[in-house]
User: Fold these one by one.
Assistant:
Number 1:
Amino acid sequence: MPNEALIVIDVQNDFCEGGALAVAGAAAVVPVVNRLIAKHDHVVLTQDWHPPGHASFASAWSGGVPFSTVQFPYGPQTLWPDHCVQGTPGAAFHPGLATDKAEVVVRKGFHPGIDSYSAFRENDRMTRTGLDGYLKARGFTRVVLCGLALDYCVAWTAIDARQAGFDVGIVQEATAAIDLEGSKKRMLNEMRLAGVKLNLTA
């Protein structure tokens, strides 16, 4: 479809088995993602791209505990293990991911004090990546999402895409979830309420 873009979220080594912030079942979705890439004419990749010592890393805080929550100027923020540090093997795309068709790569999370789940807006909800402008300038009205992790970067991207006016669908079989304290069920519900279509197939 000429007005549809596939957005592949953060299929990077650190989010796959053996990585610093591994999502259970992540590597298994790579072939499914590749099938979607093969079916789409327009592909966008996103890439978590943190500087060393990023404020969202538990290691940046005295006594910081991974997966705990602290208050940032913009609200609650989960502290994560160091992951997807710029230029490291962990930040690279999974070696099995078919990246050749990507027309643009959106890097996010590179501001030292702001985490970024969504490919459209960082976690302060003010700092924009420019992805919405890019998609609209190219005439896309519909986006299909897949990748990692369903309940964080995929979900936040989907909800922001709806708020930006796009028709949005997710191929759940091409995602994997962290499911931190019930986050998968909660974010599936939030996406449903936002009008995201959750039943697309590969």
Number 2:
Amino acid sequence: MATLPKDAQELFDNLVPEGLKQHPDKARELNAIYCFKIAGDGSGQGGEWTVDCTANPPTCIRGNSGNAQCTVEVSNEDFNTMLGDPNAGMQLYFQGKLRVSGDPMLAMKLQQLFELARPA
């Protein structure tokens, strides 16, 4: 079983960029620009990242580029729950703990994005 990242920073600063680099074709299949806004719990674990799967090569950078087609907002605690249980996203969404703006169909592809970032 793959090890889970310890927090959003490890995922978006290390694992996602590495996954995009190793699998650029799979990333481009998503054909989307995502913005993740993870609310920290005071320990600095949150942040904002833009993942651009339309770029060649695909990129993951800190900050909000302002051109995301799908923005995901969630607390760090709930984000960690989602990483551990891919099915938790829908529950969090319906509980109002996960907010998606922009194209909701792109949010359905998030699991594909996170699969690229899983260490072997």
Number 3:
Amino acid sequence: MSKRAVVIQHLAFEDLGVLKAILEHRGFEIHTYEVGAAGVPDGDFVDAELAVVLGGPIGVYEEDVYPFLAQERAVIASRLQSGRPLLGICLGAQLIASALGAQVRSTGRKEIGYAPLELTAAGRDSVLAPLDGVPVLHWHGDEFAIPEGAERLAQTPGFPNQAFRLGDAVLGLQFHIEADPTFIERWLIGHAHELATAGLDVARIREDARVLGPRLARQAGRVFEAWLDLVGPQEHS
């Protein structure tokens, strides 16, 4: 029986990116749920060998506007209880943090574009080690507190909580290492209003994706491969 990776996706262009080929090479059968159209998975998400929650431009705290967020957080909580591997990116990491009881809030500012991380001591001793000194793609305005029992792995000058791990199985990343730099134009179009409102230089992000993106994609591959090696094959209970 093939291994299953169940993915929650909020925007068509914020997809698995460079992670997709890695999962396929490892023999995963990928099932993607676009929550705006297909709803939120339940048992399939909890029981799969691997679960991934991707990013999106809404806030964890906007359940009154986007009611599916409550259901999504509930299935994430069930996944956490299962102990099976769970990866969250941007909104995904915020939802995991929230499901673990940590605060997620709007900061009133934006961190968008390519810039390096500063890894903590725990981060340098984690699967994120290949990112030390490597500019990554940031695209957020919210931030999460580090959940109780989790380790803080990375920071930037404006956002001290950029990544966390809870044991080996749970990894939350505020930044985007999954984004395929060859498709950055889709991000620039899809987030055009946000970029214009924040007064950000679209041409600069495009050029940084061209120059910095290929190295980040290589290092991202090393991160994902290391994490998948760490969590190992998962069997159904």
